[in-house]
TrEMBL record:
Pfam families per the UniProt record, alphabetical: SCO4848
Disordered, as annotated region: 42-71
UniProt keywords, alphabetically: Membrane, Transmembrane, Transmembrane helix
Record protein name field: Integral membrane protein
Superkingdom of origin: Bacteria
Species per Swiss-Prot/TrEMBL record: Streptomyces enissocaesilis
Family annotation (NCBIfam families): SCO4848_fam
Transmembrane segments: 81-100, 120-144
Compositionally biased intervals (Low complexity): 44-60
InterPro entries noted in UniProt: SCO4848-like
This protein's record includes keyword Cytoplasm: no
C-alpha cells in the first residue's frame, strides 16, 4: 500500500471518529467495539477489522435497515421545499439561457476579439453558464419529483 493512501485512510478515520459518524458509515454494532484502545488497533489493522471481518476479507459494506435505527429511509420533501426547488430550476433555465444569448451577442470586445474569435472570457463564462444550467436543471427535477409525489399522495389519501 502506498504512503499516500495510508495517509488518506488515517485522515478519513480521524474525521469519522471525531465527528462521531463511524457508526453511520460502518453499520450497527460498531459503537460497542469502538473503545479507545481498540481504535488504535483498528488504525493498524485496516477497514476490514473496523467492519468486524478478518483482515484481508473484502466484501461490500453492509446495508442498514431503517427499522434497525438506520438513516437510509426514503426522504420526503415538504410542499414549500418542493415548489421552491422547482421554481429555482425554472428560474435557472430562464436566467442562464438569457445569459448565454447575451454573451453570444456581446459587442463590447470581452467575449470576442477583433477577429471574431471567442476569448477566454467567453469560454469561462460559457462554462459557468452551462454548469449552472445543469445544476439548476437537477435541482428543478428534484423539486418536480417532490411536487408530483405530494400530489400522488394527496390523491390516494
Amino acid at each position: 500500500m502506498s504512503a499516500g493512501s495510508n495517509t488518506a485512510e488515517r485522515t478519513v478515520r480521524a474525521v469519522f471518529l471525531t465527528a462521531g459518524t463511524i457508526e453511520n458509515v460502518q453499520g450497527a454494532g460498531v459503537e460497542a467495539d469502538m473503545a479507545g484502545t481498540h481504535r488504535r488497533g483498528l488504525r493498524r489493522a485496516g477497514p476490514a477489522a473496523v467492519a468486524g471481518r478478518p483482515p484481508g476479507s473484502a466484501s461490500a459494506p453492509r446495508r442498514r435497515r431503517p427499522e434497525n435505527g438506520g438513516d437510509t429511509g426514503l426522504m420526503k420533501l415538504s410542499r414549500p421545499v418542493s415548489w421552491f426547488l422547482l421554481a429555482f430550476g425554472v428560474w435557472s433555465w430562464f436566467i442562464w439561457i438569457t445569459f448565454v444569448k447575451n454573451l453570444w451577442k456581446d459587442g463590447s470586445g470581452l467575449a470576442f476579439d477583433d477577429a471574431g474569435d471567442p476569448t477566454t472570457y467567453f469560454w469561462v463564462h460559457l462554462l459557468l453558464a452551462v454548469t449552472s444550467f445543469l445544476l439548476g436543471t437537477a435541482v428543478g427535477v428534484i423539486g418536480f419529483r417532490g411536487v408530483r409525489a405530494l400530489r400522488r399522495e394527496r390523491s390516494r389519501g
